[in-house]
Design goal:
With 267 residues, the chain is of the alpha/beta class. The chain has 9 helices and 12 strands. It is globular.
Length: 267
């Protein structure tokens, strides 16, 4: 079995399994849980920085996944390519990803169902050093153990190309789609707050045109999700919106983080 080894264990999150499991459990326990009447999420957006910075925001999103543990059969993970130029989207050739908590199986059948799409390639290279999907996995392993993933790194792609991939895998309530993205990068605290609030309004309005190059590092997969959400009749709910100046670090140069849940619109 070909296993993609963790690239950022020991930097973005602890490399020791016991320490990592305890940290994830503690972070989830400190996050605001969904209300009893909150609709079940079909898609989430969660940040992907080091856990000291964005773990609390990511946990708010992953708690929505936890309440779906009895119905989720696969998780589709999409995030931006930070380290490699990529045209379109890339699926790994590996059979699994690993973290200090163990192995996460890849749903090869779902990837095979996408391989005819011209925007999708199969390559391990864009995944090798990429952190955006990896940092989501310990949360997934704690709240949805043994659920397979469809990990896709997104590079230079059109909104419609990402939307097509999401909709191809949408199927029924057994699929959860998770977009991994941070928001603005390296502005002062006040500027970041303004920019991230504008991005939040764009996401709530399902308006991809209002997300520009400085809005989010994962703006391409986020924009694709917003297009799919419009087509599928979903609505977006803001769960959390903070930045590194609120969590861990100074306020001179911050990174923004947000969490959103998408569920069918009422009626």
């Amino acid at each position: 079995m070909r296993v993609r080894a963790p690239a950022v264990a020991g930097s973005f999150y602890p490399a020791d399994p016991k320490e990592l499991r305890e940290l994830v459990a503690h972070t989830l326990a400190g996050a605001t849980p969904p209300a009893e009447d909150e609709p079940a999420a079909r898609a989430l957006i969660a940040p992907h920085a080091g856990y000291v910075y964005s773990g609390g925001v990511a946990a708010v999103a992953w708690l929505r996944a936890a309440r779906l543990a009895d119905r989720i059969r696969r998780v589709v993970l999409l995030g931006p390519a930070h380290r490699a130029f990529l045209r379109g989207l890339a699926a790994p050739r590996a059979d699994a990803f690993s973290t200090p908590l163990g192995v996460v199986p890849i749903d090869r059948a779902s990837i095979d169902a996408l391989i005819d799409l011209p925007q999708l390639s199969a390559s391990d290279a864009p995944h090798a050093g990429e952190h955006c999907l990896e940092v989501q996995l310990p949360f997934l392993q704690c709240v949805l153990p043994a659920v397979p993933i469809v990990p896709l790194v997104v590079g230079d792609a059109g909104d419609d190309e990402v939307q097509e991939v999401i909709e191809r895998l949408w199927e029924d309530a057994g699929t959860l789609t998770v977009i991994s993205s941070d928001l603005s990068h390296y502005h002062d605290y006040a500027t970041a707050r303004r920019m991230d609030a504008a991005s939040c309004r764009a996401i709530e309005a399902l308006d991809p045109a209002r997300l520009g190059p400085e809005s989010a590092c994962g703006r391409v997969p986020v924009r694709g999700l917003l297009c799919a959400a419009r087509a599928l009749g979903l609505t977006a709910r803001t769960l959390d919106l903070r930045n590194s100046g609120d969590t861990a670090g100074g306020r001179e140069r911050v990174v923004g983080y947000g969490a959103w849940a998408f569920h069918p619109a009422p009626g």
